[in-house]
Each structure stands twice: as structure tokens, then as C-alpha cells.
Amino acid sequence: MASYSTNEFRGGLKLILDNDPCSIIENELVKPGKGQAFNRVKLRNLKTGRVLEKTFKSGESVEAADVIDVDMEFSYNDGEFWYFMDPNTFEQVGAPDSAMVDSGKWIKAQELCTVTLWDGAPLVVSAPNFVELAVTETDPGLKGDTAQGGTKPATLESGAVVKVPLFIEEGELLKVDTRSGEYVSRVKS
Amino acid sequence: MPQHWQPTATLKTLKERARILESVRAFFLQRNVLEVETPVISNAAITDPQIESFSTLFHQKEFYLHTSPEFYMKRLLAAGSGDIYQISKVFRDDENGRNHNPEFTMLEWYRLGFNHHQLMDEMELLLSRLMIKEKVECQRLSYQQVFINQFEIDPFDADVFQLKQVAEKFNIETPLGMHDDSDMWLDWLMVEKIAPDFPKDSFTFLYDYPATQASLARLDKNDSRKANRFELFYGELELANGFYELTNADEQAKRFENDNIIRQQREQKLMPVDECLLDALKSGLPECSGVAIGIDRLMMVIMGAEHINEVISFGDEFSG
Fold first, then answer.
1. Is the CB of B176 less than 8 angstroms away from the CB of A55?
2. How far apart are CA B281 and CA B290, in angstroms?
3. Can you give the pLDDT at residue A158?
4. Residues of B at the A interface, defined by Cβ within 8 angstroms
């Protein structure tokens, strides 16, 4: 079984702690000059997203987590799983709702997402930072109201609801930032 | 690997660094302490299980980069050099981070006839000069007293189970991989709870460490459970380590041997003992105290730096 010693610790390294895969955010060496060294480590639990702090006696080995990020195309959702396909190998995986976190509401078929695989199974699916989606439903904008900067809700084809300027109409293609959930611009077709 | 070709320290910091080195030399010149240079690469090496040496090859034979100039400087003292100091680059493998660079600058000096408290007095004067202050106040605490104050436990008598109880009582988490080793636990309580409680913006001397952590210090003549070793901190940042020096060659040989036994138990490399140092001690090391202070850490204090890279001209050789 692969493992890492504390002197290999650095940001981004993936470990198994309490049976969960974690990614190192920060690693600090604490060493009394003539004494035992310790590593104070900040990690993100990749399953829960929670940040935790752990201290290791330096020299300790920790099991490595077989975690990789793969860009995969979203195929469909059958109500139980979200299916993704590797465009190079055509390999398919099904991600449960828990792995989707917020991503599900931003993606439509063929969207290229980053799928984090742990021992080959989807752990987290991240939507692209920006997506382009059509408006399926929104109230008609008021004529001559464009300058006032008001907003209204609009439902997008993926199901997400975002605040948009009043001049946006149904059927228009919008660019949205999935990290903030905010409207960015209209996409000229 | 460095991210870019430019230095990691500002010109302002480099100028301040030059001023500090100049002041150190002026301080010792005034006191008739001789500046010396000793080899960086040597046959023998430090045996301390907590310190790893870099090694290199000369004609296929392994040599070591020094982790401090201590052994050579003691050979000079035994040869009759009188008071000496040295400013040198030293090297420690596996030490890298916010407060560590694998190569760093050390100021080390020895004073004949001084005990460790007299050397601490002199350090206060040096710090005052370097910090350009009338008088730098350093609090002095004994190792034993801080453990009694903080945990109501005598570090010289407590066994590992009592130390673990203390950790539990004070809600101190247990690092992964801890052994039932009382020095390991004392170190952990020190870095986790005691040092963080030192006053933030001032200097603290901690003196008279447990005999099991004597390193190259002599044992106290009235209480052999403690060694006349001290450290200097700024806030919780360790700056210097000093000894009222062990002069007994047999005792020193035993400590080297014991270090290698521990190394063997921990499956670390065994290190070649410095027989020349032992011979020098046999021929007679004068009564003296010595201390080594990390110039880069001191620069961090002076410049208010968050990372050691900020005070080293090119501090990113080992980053990433």
C-alpha cells in the first residue's frame, strides 16, 4: 500500500485519515531545536468538504489516497445517479447525489466537468467555473427599464434559478459563474 | 524549485541583514572575542537523532555538511584559542517550512569561565545592540518551573503516563504516531502549550532542561536530573540554544554512543562519532559556555517577517 512520510507532505497531497480521503491544504513543521519535530497539518476531507487540523509526529507514514481528477462529460441523470463519460476512454461512471454537492443544477448534457475519483469511484463532481445556459422561464422585462439595474429571477435549462437583469427574455443564452451562482452576461448567438 | 529568478528578500531587508552582521562583528571585536572559520564539510558528524546531516562524496567517500560549527570550535578552544565566535552557513536535512530553511546562517560563540547565566547576560547585551535598544528585557524561566506553573507537574520526575494524563486533562490533542516516550511528550507539551504562552513580543530564556535532553550541556552540579542547557525564544519562536559545556570526554563518548543506539532503534542511519572532538576533550576543554543563534530567525523578528524566505536573499531553493 502506498504511503507518504511527513517529510513528503505538501499542499495538494491526498491521504487517508479515519478512512476518509483528505487533501493537504497547509503543512507546518514545528520543531524544538534539539527535540522531536511535529507536523501541524490543515486538511480538507474530500468526502465532506470539511477542513480539519491534525498533528503528526514527524517521520510518521500515512496511507496515500488514490484520488485523481478526470475531466468527464455529463451524459444523463436517471434520478438516482448522474452519469459521466471519459471522452478519451469512453469509460462511464455514475455519481450519487452526495458527490454532486452544488454541481447538478449547473450542468446539461455534454458539459465537461471535473470528476474526482477515489479508487475509481466518483467522490466529488465540480461543474466548470462558467457555464452557458438558456433561460426557460422568466417574467417579461419592462420596456425602458434597462438603465435602473433592477433584477428578477430566471429559471435556466439546467434547473438553476439565478438573478438576471430585467431586460433578459426567455430563450436567451446566459453566461453564469457557478462558484458565486451569479449571472455574468448574455451570450451572443 | 524557485518560482522566478528574483531574490525572495527585499533590498531593505538585505541592507538590514548587512547591518546586523556588521554589529555582531563590532560587538565581539570590542570584547576581544576572536572571529574564526572552521570546515563546513567533515568526516565525522553530529549523532543527535533529532538532527539529520546532508552528506556528499569526495573520492567516493562519504563526508557530511556541518549542522553547527560546534565540534571544530571546541577543538580550537582545547587548543588554546581563548574566546571565539563564528558566523557560518549550516545545513540540516528535512527541515523546511515557514520557520526553517535547510541551509541557514548561525552565529555561534564561546566564552571561557562563563556559566550559562553569564552567557545569557551577554546575549541580552548583544540583542540590545542589534535591536538598537537601551536594554532588551528577557524574561528568564526555568524549564521545571514552567511545567509546574502550567501543568502542576514536575518534568524531572513525571513518567510518560503522567504526561499523557496532563495532555488529557488540558485537552491537548495527541499527535498521530506518538510513542510512550517521556521526552517526546515533554517536547509536545512544550510546543503545543508552553511556548505559545510566552509573551508575544518579547524574549524569553528557558533554562535547565531535563538531563535526558542535555545534548552537549553538563549536568547541574547540585541536581543531576537537570542539564545546564538553555534556549532563547521570541514569542514562541525559538532563536538560540546554549550550553554550559560538557567537558568530560567519557561522558561525551557515552552520549554519542547512546545517540547511535537510539538511531539504530529508530532505523535511522548511524553517524560517525567525532573522535577528534573526544581527543580534544581528553586533552582538556576549558570551562566555558557556548551558544548558537539563528541569524535568519533573528532577522524575522527584526523585520516582522512571516516566512523565513523573506529574510534570505534566495530563500526558495527548497520550496514547492
1. yes
2. 15
3. 94
4. 48, 50-51, 94-100, 173, 175-179, 183-184, 186-188, 190-192, 213, 215, 231, 238, 241, 266, 320
- The set of cell numbers assigned to A132 is 452557458
Quote ipTM for the complex.
Answer: 0.89
How far separated are the first and last CA of chain A, in Å rounded? Answer: 52
CATH number of domain containing B288? 3.30.930.10
Please enumerate, as own/partner, the contacts of B1-8 that have beta carbons within 8 Å and a separation of 24 or more. Answer: B1/B319, B1/B320, B2/B314, B2/B316, B2/B317, B2/B319, B3/B316, B3/B319, B3/B320, B7/B313, B7/B314, B8/B309, B8/B310, B8/B312, B8/B313, B8/B314, B8/B315, B8/B316
Residue A50's CATH number: 2.30.30.30
Instruction: List the one residue out of B205, B254, B241, B222 whose CA is nearest residue B156.
Output: B222
pLDDT above 70: residue A145? no
For B292, nearest residue in chain A (alpha carbons): A33
Asked if B238 and A33 come within 8 Å (Cβ–Cβ), the reply is yes
β pairing state of A130-138 and A173-177: antiparallel
Q: Please indicate whether, in this complex, the C-beta atoms of A32 and B215 are within 8 angstroms of each other.
A: no
Q: Which residue has the higher pLDDT, B96 or B251?
A: B251
The count of structural domains within chain B is 1
Interface mutation vs chain A, best among B163, B191, B291, most A CBs within 10 Å: B191
Domain membership of residue B164 (yes or no) is: no
Structure confidence by residue, pLDDT tens digits, B176-214: 999 999 999 999 999 999 999 999 999 999 999 999 999
| A62 to chain B, closest Cα gap in Å | 9
Chain A neighbors of B99, CB-CB under 8 A: 29
Q: Is the pLDDT of residue B320 over 80?
A: no
Written as nine digits, the cell of A8 is 513528503
Residue of B nearest to A18 (CA): B176
Is the domain of A91 the same as that of A135?
Answer: no
Non-local CB neighbours of A143 within 8 Å, separated by 6+ positions: none
The answer to whether the beta carbons of residues A93 and A69 sit under 8 Å apart is no
Identity of the residue in A31, A37, A54 whose CB atom sits nearest the CB atom of B176? A54
CA distance B205 to B207: 6
Cβ contacts of B171 within 8 Å, gap of 6 or more: none
Radius of gyration, CA atoms only, chain A: 22
Domain of residue A37: give its range: 3-63
Domain check: are A110 and A140 in the same one? no
Q: Say which residues have a Cβ less than 8 Å from residue B37's Cβ, sequence separation at least 6.
A: B86, B88
Q: How many domains does chain A have?
A: 3
Tell me how far CA of residue B11 lies from CA of B20, B98, B314, B316, in angstroms: 14, 20, 12, 16
Which of A85, A103, A126 represents a domain boundary (last residue)?
A: A126
Q: Do B183 and A37 touch (CB under 8 A)?
A: no
Residue A119 amino acid letter: D
